Amino acid sequence: KESEMETEEEVDILMSSDIYSATLSTKSITFTRAQTGWLFREDKTERVGNFLADFYLVNGLVLESRKRREHLSEEDILRNKAIMESLSKGGNLMEQNFEPVRRQSLTPPSPNTITWEEYISAENGKAPHLGRELVCKESKKTFKATIAMSQEFPLGIESLLNVLEVIAPFKHFNKLREFVQMKLPPGFPVKLDIPVFPTITATVTFQEFRYGEFDDSIFTIPDDYKEDPSRFPDL
Question: What distance in Å separates the CA atoms of residue 152 and residue 165, rounded to the nearest whole number?
């Protein structure tokens, strides 16, 4: 159980950080075959591990981010910017010597002068703002990614989705399934390169896969088994 001091430290960290929300838009994503060669261009096909794969460029991958920062001081904003710049260059968060500063609660916003009648009669989508004045920053960044699809991989993408749906359920899983079924090129994604920072690219690969033989007894539920309802709270 957290102590009062630990709770206060968490609050101080939150009060000195941006309120951040990010969504990865897939509406405009398209796939085009990656090319190789200088004079005589041809579709890029290479082996990834044991599997022959066709390479595609992922176009139109847009990261939309929103930041709220009306609770931050100018010093907070400058420090947070310096930390992010350091991380983007491969720095370590531990090197920043970040110590949360004890701070008092924010001063209350100005008294509200909007009447209930004015609020409910406002134009749709343009309701008058209540409370503290918002300080928001929105940005969009387009990423270029590469994906390698193999039709030799023994597992189908639908099987992978079924597994992910069980072990990592999340709110918009149906959108992921729809995206995969409607837009993803044929085959199984055996390699994915996607930039996470200007100088850092994350790579995910499936280089080998084999089915194992399991005895049916390992799937038998013991007679003395008792389900713990709090074991998997998210399921």
Answer: 24
